[in-house]
Amino acid sequence: MNFALRAIRATTVSPFRRVTTINIQRRTMQIRSIPMWTGSHDNYAYVVIDDKTKDAMVVDPANPPEVLPVLKELIDSGKINFKGIINTHHHRDHAGGNAETLKQYPHTPVIGGKDCDQVTTTPKHNETFKIGEGINVRAIHTPCHTQDSICYFLEDGEEKVVFTGDTLFIAGCGRFFEGTAEEMHEALNNRLGKLPEDTRVYPGHEYTKSNIKFGKSVLDTPAVRDLVQFCEENEETQGKFTIGDELKHNVFMRVEDPEIQKATGQTDPLEVMQKLRDMKNNFRG
Ligand SMILES: [Zn+2]
């Protein structure tokens, strides 16, 4: 369980002129990761809960046998009010569980790209909606991996997270199945890369260990070595790194870095992006 707890220190002066410090624990949005197909596809679904209202949505509940028992427990115990499915893109290992989930919970809204199974609402680029009272969600269109790829930027007070599907992984990015290097450059470096640097990243897969192995083959810096070390000691990396971290250790977000230009033999950012993708596709580290 990954609760975001934030301690707010409030200092008050008592009538007896004694300074008293009290700690108020303010709980902001809660995110629960549900690993799916661990050891093969290594996907993640996520339950996002608004603490105040208990309203919750589930991101990419693709494998019902692994997701539905978790949802059922949360719903039946009164911990959440299940309000909707959010999809990052149409691939089966992301949107393939919608029908089964809707069978259990009919009339649930499905928010996602236009090609997602059973989709009911496709938000426009930069369109916003809420989860409960506290969580503001902004849809960020990132066509490339699929043309219907959407990332979701969530804010609850100071807390900021982004669900990136198969567009941005920790230290990597998705393959360009339906798009171009130009589109991925726009997605990573103009849209996601310009989010606040303290935004925590929740990707659609746990691919960090192999991503950073490739990353280290083209960029050997302290930030890259730190992530290699982190992956030696941790199986899961979702929510542990921010956009600011990605700007340092993700080679696809450093297409103007001279060391990466040298490794790819290219200088134009789009050529660097394409070459990095080709090199990663063929990498057998
Ligand atoms: Zn995909």
Task: Give a topology summary.
Blueprint (H helix, E strand, L loop, with lengths): L1 E12 L5 E18 L6 E7 L5 E5 L4 H13 L4 E6 L5 H4 L2 H7 L5 E2 L16 E4 L3 E7 L8 E7 L2 E7 L2 E2 L2 E2 L7 H11 L8 E4 L4 H11 L3 H12 L9 H7 L8 H7 L4 H13 L4
Parallel strand pairs: 4-5, 5-6, 10-13
Antiparallel strand pairs: 1-2, 2-3, 3-4, 7-8, 8-9, 9-10, 11-12
Helix pairs in contact: 4-9, 5-6
This protein binds zinc ion.
Please supply descriptive tags for the structure shown above.
285 residues; Metallo-beta-lactamase, Chain A; six-stranded mixed sheet; five-stranded mixed sheet; binds zinc ion; EC 3.1.2.6; zinc; HAGH_C
Query: For the record, what CATH class applies?
Result: Alpha Beta
Report how far the terminal alpha carbons are from each other: 33 Å
Bound molecules: zinc ion
Q: Which band does the percent of strand residues land in?
A: 25-35%
Number of strands: 13
Our count of domains comes out at 1
Order of helices and strands: EEEEHEHHEEEEEEEHEHHHHH
The structural class is alpha+beta
Task: Classify the helix fraction into a percent range.
Answer: 25-40%
Could you explain the architecture of this structure?
With 285 residues, the chain is α+β, with helices and mostly antiparallel strands. 30% of the residues lie in helices and 29% in strands. It contains nine helices and 13 strands. It has helices at residues 64-76, 92-95, 98-104, 181-191, 208-218, 222-233, 243-249, 258-264, 269-281; strands at 2-13, 19-36, 43-49, 55-59, 81-86, 110-111, 128-131, 135-141, 150-156, 159-165, 168-169, 172-173, 200-203. It has a six-stranded mixed sheet with strand order 1-2-3-4-5-6, covered by helices on one side. It has a five-stranded mixed sheet with strand order 7-8-9-10-13, with no helix packed on it. Bound molecules: zinc ion. Zinc ion binds at residues 89, 91, 94, 145, 166.
